[in-house]
């Protein structure tokens, strides 16, 4: 079996409980993930419980939180800890999304602490990286994104290669309608995969690398067809099954 394919839907701060429930029912009825093509759903925290409950008996569907705090407990009003997610039977947590880095000043060091906390709690870490437009225009994106990733996953042990998924999400493409070309995505993914292998050994080549940023049915085939693109982290197009299902089918084809 080659590398695992992954389609992950990040609902962000969208969907009422009823809308979330309807979306889950539709996903469950229409998508049939397999061992080699798995699906993650990341609803808002307040809908994690209903999501876990609804997807429990459907295999190869996994539930992710959009963020959580590394400390297990304490005086962090408004926050939720990774160990609390584990206690709710959540499978994974998205870490270092560019919106967290922007609105909550999350640094690579914070993301790194969260990654280790996720592993300690038995969760999959979906670690996001990506350059902003300025870096891309200056032509420094490859080096910049690797630096960000390297710092975010410091201390990654080979025993956790199956517990990590990496998402390359150019900031200029997230929610903007502006999408990386298949060649741009492939160049970055190939670079990250090579760097991972050179630092962590060839087994690290098995870590799934997802693309994220305005991925939709009209551009997914070409993106997913790239050798080093193993799937997508999807925002806007994860909110409607009529968009998300074709993405699943695109990924199934490659
Ligand atoms: C995201 O939120 O991770 C994302 C990729 O959003 P969008 O697909 O809407 O660009």
Describe the protein's architecture and organization.
The protein is an alpha/beta fold and 254 residues long. The protein has one domain: TIM Barrel (Alpha-Beta Barrel), CATH 3.20.20. Helices cover 42% and strands 15% of the residues. The chain has 10 helices and 8 strands. It has an 8-stranded parallel sheet with strand order 7-6-5-4-3-2-1-8, with helices on one face. The longest helix is centred in the last third of the chain and has 19 residues. The radius of gyration is 17 Å and the shape is globular. The two termini are 14 Å apart. The structure holds phosphoenolpyruvate. Phosphoenolpyruvate (PEP) binds next to strand 8.
Produce a short descriptive summary.
The protein is an alpha/beta fold. It has helices at residues 17-30, 48-55, 82-87, 98-103, 108-121, 133-138, 141-152, 182-200, 217-224, 241-253, and strands at residues 5-10, 37-42, 61-65, 92-95, 124-129, 164-168, 209-211, 231-234.
């Amino acid at each position: 079996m080659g590398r695992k394919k992954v389609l992950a839907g990040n609902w962000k701060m969208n969907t009422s409980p009823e809308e979330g429930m309807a979306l889950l029912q539709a996903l469950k009825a229409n998508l049939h993930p397999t061992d080699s093509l798995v699906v993650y759903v990341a609803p808002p925290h307040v809908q994690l419980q209903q999501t876990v409950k609804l997807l429990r008996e459907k295999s190869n569907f996994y539930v992710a939180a959009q963020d959580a705090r590394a400390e297990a407990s304490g005086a962090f009003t408004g926050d939720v800890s990774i160990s609390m997610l584990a206690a709710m039977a959540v499978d994974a947590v998205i870490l270092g999304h560019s919106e967290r880095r922007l609105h909550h000043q999350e640094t690579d060091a914070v993301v790194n602490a969260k990654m280790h906390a996720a592993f300690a709690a038995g969760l999959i870490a979906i670690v996001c990286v990506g350059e902003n437009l300025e870096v891309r225009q200056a032509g420094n994106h490859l080096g910049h994104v690797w630096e960000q990733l390297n710092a975010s996953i410091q201390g990654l042990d080979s025993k956790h290669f199956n517990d990590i998924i990496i998402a390359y999400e150019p900031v200029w493409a997230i929610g903007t309608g502006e999408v990386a070309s298949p060649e741009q995505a492939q160049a970055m993914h190939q670079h990250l995969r090579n760097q991972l292998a050179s630092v962590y050994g060839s087994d690290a080549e098995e870590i799934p690398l997802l693309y994220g940023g305005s991925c939709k049915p009209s551009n997914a085939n070409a993106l997913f067809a790239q050798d080093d693109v193993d799937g997508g982290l999807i925002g806007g197009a994860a909110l409607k099954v009529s968009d998300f299902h074709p993405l699943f089918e695109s990924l199934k084809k490659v």
